[in-house]
Design a protein that fits this description.
The chain has 3 domains: 7-45 and 73-222, Phosphoenolpyruvate Carboxykinase, domain 1 (3-Layer(aba) Sandwich); 227-298 and 386-550, Phosphoenolpyruvate Carboxykinase, domain 3 (Alpha-Beta Complex); 302-376, Beta Complex (Phosphoenolpyruvate Carboxykinase, domain 2), CATH 2.170.8. Helices cover 29% and strands 22% of the residues. The strands form 6 sheets. Strands 11, 12, 13, 14, 15, 16, 24, 25 and 28 form a 9-stranded mixed sheet that branches. Strands 1, 4, 5, 6, 7, 8, 9 and 10 form an 8-stranded mixed sheet that branches. The protein has a 5-stranded mixed sheet with strand order 2-3-18-23-17, with helices on one face. The model has no long low-confidence stretch (mean pLDDT 96). It binds oxalic acid (OXD) and manganese (II) ion. Manganese (II) ion (MN) binds at residues 228, 250, 279. The site of oxalic acid (OXD) has 6 residues, from loops.
């Protein structure tokens, strides 16, 4: 039974039913009763497995096809009327041509299957930030993941009312054929289409497809920003909480930073870190002239391998109930899960991510896929911010960019001003990781960590950043960090993890004008003694000098690679003049 009388919604669903031809249509109303039924069905068909309900209550396991384990950037399209609107960094196809292709794939794709109608909200229903979507899918796995990652249910349709403006998402699993796999955004039509995949990033359409690609486009038109950023709050011993948002390319430790545990000395003084979000931030200028942020999601879709009681206890604890595990190893001894670096005790009797028997004690192969995931409710997180559900969000005092650079970038520096900060974000670079299909370990430019997620021409996106700077009377200060500097033997110099709070402390002092800094060619920098290293065994003042050193020759080489990257925007001439000027000013400072 339809849960709404919204004509635009009903007409759209009728049209899709006629195309996809499902046997039946089930509306997800958000009731526990319906979810229980779907879980039982998924367990009965083997689509999902129920895990040990004493050790992992409410937890389930799912394995995707071996050819379907990551986002597929080469099969992800932004279909705008002109190629220029999609820009040089996105795959593009003319919308009519793409719709024809998709309609042929969708024709009858749900025959013999059920279509689920998922009404969902990104951000708290009724919040000034909230945007509503409906995802049609033939996968119970998608329904149960969307329940964790977004706010789902009839109340979303009630909030939408008769408004025809909602984000339309269609996902058909089909036969997960990688040759015919498409993840497509039509920004002008508020439409997302996904076919032939069942992996999270490709099928949980509220996440990357809506909350970043479509939302970045909406944000430009409506004067706000959708960014690939974590949001965290640092509470000082006086009880004051200061918030920052931070962008890092995939799998650079973003979830770990978002849930950081303060070092012992900080804990003893009364510092606390609160997680508002680990992946996506929507930012708007508030009435007070500050930039306010919400995390539009409701859960964490985190990378499992490497998550353990040392690296990220908050994330691990978050996964201990009501969580869906995807492509991890299944420990048959006690019907739980395991992944690389969870602990030093891999199971002997297990099934690996491919579904084959696996002995963790003897096998040389991984038990879990490197991009295996947990989908965990945000409320499970021990350090979830008390402001997590605040419909007005939190005020952002600092924006932090970061990447994985072995040598060039120092531990931290601050941009001279907003426009220079946009330049710093635009030249972000990192090594590729297993989160996206393709080569691993190659350095690539990833401006604002948005390269795979910007829903329009990235040159215009840079201009939007510059324009936003003029609209925020009390704009956050912009910083860059690099936790990954290595010594000549390739070892990381900075301990990272909880100790990153030492750097964030300096950032916040700068954001609130509480400390001076040194002016260098790349930006403002701390003096080595300005970063608190008390209690660190392996870092002394000399190490700090190393971490903060700036090698102008390396930066000059970097400038050449930046020029090559910027040249991509020549095709449509969309690189803002402000960034060209920033680059030439930077070259001049390096030459001095
Ligand atoms: C992710 C990513 O969050 O790839 O999954 O960025
Ligand atoms: Mn991400």
């Amino acid at each position: 039974m339809a849960l709404t009388t919204n004509k635009a919604v009903l007409d759209w669903i009728d049209e899709k039913v006629a195309l996809l031809k499902p046997d039946q249509v089930v509306w997800i109303d958000g009731s526990e009763e319906l979810y229980a039924k779907l879980r039982a069905e998924a367990f009965a068909t083997g689509e999902m497995e129920e895990l040990n309900q004493e050790k992992l209550p409410g937890c389930m396991l799912h394995r995707t096809a071996v050819n379907d384990v990551a986002r597929v950037e080469d099969r992800t399209f932004i279909c705008t009327p002109t190629r220029k609107e999609a820009g040089p960094t996105n795959n593009w196809m003319e919308p009519g041509e793409m719709y024809a292709k998709l309609n042929a794939l969708y024709d009858g794709a749900m025959k013999g299957r059920t279509m689920y109608v998922i009404p969902y909200s990104m951000s708290v229903v009724g919040s000034p930030f909230a945007k509503y979507g409906i995802e049609l899918t033939d996968s119970i796995y998608v329904v149960l993941n969307m329940k964790i990652m977004t706010r789902v249910g009839k109340n979303v349709l009630d909030a939408l009312g008769d408004d025809p403006n909602f984000i339309k998402g269609v996902h058909a699993k089909k036969d997960v054929n990688p040759e015919e796999r498409y993840i497509v955004q039509f920004p002008q039509d508020n439409t997302i289409c996904s076919v032939n995949s069942a992996y999270g990033g490709n099928v949980l359409l509220g996440k990357k497809c809506f909350a970043l690609r479509i939302a970045s486009y909406l944000g430009r038109n409506e004067g706000w920003m959708a960014e690939h950023m974590l949001i965290l709050g640092i509470e000082n011993p006086q009880g004051e909480v200061r918030y920052l948002s931070a962008a890092f390319p995939s799998a650079c430790g973003k979830t770990n930073l978002a849930m950081l545990i303060p070092p012992e000395g900080y804990k003893a003084k009364g510092y606390k870190v609160w997680c508002v979000g680990d992946d996506i931030a929507w930012l708007r200028v508030g009435e007070d002239g500050r930039l306010w942020a919400v995390n539009p999601e409701n859960g964490f879709f985190g990378v499992a391998p490497g998550t353990n009681m040392k690296s990220n206890p908050n994330a691990l604890i978050s996964t201990m109930k009501d969580t869906i595990f995807t492509n991890v190893a299944h420990n048959l001894d006690d019907n739980t899960v395991w992944w690389e670096k969870l602990d030093k005790n891999p199971p002997e009797h297990a099934i690996d991510w491919k579904g084959n028997p696996w002995n963790g004690k003897t096998s040389k192969e991984n038990g879990a896929h490197p991009n295996s995931r947990f989908t965990a409710p945000a409320v499970n997180c021990p350090c979830i911010s008390p402001e997590f559900n605040n419909p007005n969000g939190v005020p952002i005092s600092a924006i932090v960019f970061g990447g994985r650079r072995a040598k060039t970038a120092p531990l931290v520096y601050q941009s001279f001003d907003w426009n220079h900060g946009v330049f710093v974000g635009s030249i972000m670079a990192s090594e590729t990781t297993a989160a996206a299909a393709g080569a691993v370990g190659v350095v690539r430019r990833d401006p604002m960590a948005m390269l795979p997620f910007c829903g329009y021409n990235m040159g215009d996106y840079f201009q939007h950043w510059i324009d936003m700077g003029k609209k925020i009377p009390h704009a956050p200060k912009i910083f860059n960090v690099n936790w990954f500097r290595t010594d000549d033997e390739g070892n990381f110099i900075w301990p990272g993890f909880g100790d990153n709070l030492r750097v964030l402390e300096w950032i916040m002092k700068r954001a609130f004008d509480e400390i001076d800094a040194e002016e260098t060619a790349i930006g403002y920098m701390p003096r080595p003694e300005d970063i608190n290293i008390e209690g660190l065994d392996d870092v002394n003042l000399d190490t700090m000098k190393d971490l903060l050193s700036v090698d102008k020759d390396l930066w000059k080489e970097d400038v050449e690679s930046i020029k090559q990257f910027y040249a991509k925007f020549d095709e449509f001439d969309t690189l803002p003049a402000v960034l060209k000027k920033e680059l030439s000013d930077f070259e001049e400072r390096l030459a001095k």
